[in-house]
Design a protein that fits this description.
- The protein has 110 residues and is mainly α.
- The chain has one domain.
- Helices cover 59% and strands 0% of the residues.
- The longest helix is centred in the C-terminal third of the chain and has 33 residues.
- It is elongated.
Length: 110
Amino acid sequence: MAGPNMISAQSVLRHLPLGGSGALQTPDGVAAPAAEQKGGFVDALIDSLDEVDAAQAKADVTVERFLAGEDVPVHRVMIALTEAESTVRLATAVATKVIDAYQEISNLQV
């Protein structure tokens, strides 16, 4: 269930410096070697973004049910909205740290 403001994990990953095999690319555009196993960084990133998306979708459904007049207590609406906001803030903070680390590594002199 993707609303107009939902961001899919795949749309975010298109903007990351990933090679065709899912390997991170070095600043000169050469793909770094990637492990051919499941459970790598990209898979963890996709799983985390899917969790953020699920929290947003749950909050949307809860608000829609509340506005439709169903028996949804106000505190349940607030809990769902707060949970969704917290997941977005955490994802944003982690993304900022990952980008900072990538930029720092790419600026290292070899």
